[in-house]
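Anyone? Bumping this.
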Amino acid sequence: MKTRVISGLAMVPLLVLVYLGGYPLLALCIIIAAIGVKEFFDGFKAMGINPCYNLAYLAIIVLYVLNAAAPGNFELLCAWLAGSIMLSSLYMFRTTERSPLDAMATMTGIIYVVFFSFHVVLVDQDPNYSILIWMVLLSAFCTDIFAYFSGYLFGKHKLCPNLSPKKTIEGAVGGTIGSVVCCGIFGYIVVPEIWWHCLIMGLIAAVFSQFGDLTASAYKRKMGIKDYGNLIPGHGGIMDRFDSVLFTAPVIFYYIALILN
Amino acid sequence: MKTRVISGLAMVPLLVLVYLGGYPLLALCIIIAAIGVKEFFDGFKAMGINPCYNLAYLAIIVLYVLNAAAPGNFELLCAWLAGSIMLSSLYMFRTTERSPLDAMATMTGIIYVVFFSFHVVLVDQDPNYSILIWMVLLSAFCTDIFAYFSGYLFGKHKLCPNLSPKKTIEGAVGGTIGSVVCCGIFGYIVVPEIWWHCLIMGLIAAVFSQFGDLTASAYKRKMGIKDYGNLIPGHGGIMDRFDSVLFTAPVIFYYIALILN
């Protein structure tokens, strides 16, 4: 429990950057994307797969430059995605050294880490609901914390013993309820006119938050690693901290874009 | 050379559907995506990787239903992409049976086959330049045919012997010139006001057409298969016929969307 508290404190500078939004948040997202990709690709190397780091870094630079030039242009975003996938394919043309798995790992890193984390920026840039950037973090971290405590107090039935042995069904339910309640309270105070949308977002994001957590676990398990990195000593790497956010950010963004706006 | 002529004739019904556009073309794209994914995933199975066929079929259905409901909504397209990638991740949660490679192969199929081929529909739906749907096919097939003949006549220097032993640099140059000339002529006759844009599109699409061809070859080589399928006896499967189109369709579409429109 002590590590939970300390890891919580390590999040305080993050909250300041999210509060500031704009360029500081943009810089944070670029750093998280770059370190996240590096950690994720290091994991693939432990599996004997060699993704192209430089291509992913190039994709990050191009994505954020395009976004600066034309923020919120989704045709451009799709073009970036298609281009990144095509370039990743070129990486396997040297068949004697490379395999499709190297190209596929590169694509996966670009989409899963870079594209997904970019949705934090998209929420922040939303003209009407940029305040809901807090929901991305709130749903992810509340799910995590409430799942931990309700699992600790009531946990009896294992959720998926092969994948993440400590997780329980009681924890998953408690985490989901915790996220719904916290997001509802946040909505009621900050955006009362759409507070019940916040409840729904809290529910959907809680489910996806746990999918994100389990996805990261599934990769790590096959990579044969316990943590993605050791950036915050004792608390793993960027990808261990933000595995849930990678999934809650798209959920919150598309809810805003397709339902609220 | 005889097989080239016959395979050319097999394309005539296709040309009729492209000429009709709209629903017939939509149906063709759905069929190509479904058969293409099946062929591509069969290739992965030959490598010992087991992607989720049903998830890809579901992704196709959802994509085309969403497109019918809200054509040309790129936020929705990005949401579909993110959702498909997330669902593909869930596929590996049964860690005893599945590996990240199964999930990554599923994602690759959805993006490379389904998302890329969908750009044919996007070009057809363009309000101003749907006529340029012909450029998608013209660039792909002219590159292929001119590369074949110029390689046959002038070919001396191997392009990438490990990947595709018969291809030559002379063929690649000849194919590119052929595409530029044919696309230029097409533009001059059909859309004279933007004929030089057609030249540029012919050039870019010719390069990507050959990338698409080589990408399919790189996958096949590691999958240990010669052809993706045997749909048209003697001419391979859908993926062997349309490997170039998968890359020219996004190129033409984004040129239209980002430069012409």
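Late reply, but here is one note on the structure posted above: Chain B is about 75% helix and 0% strand.
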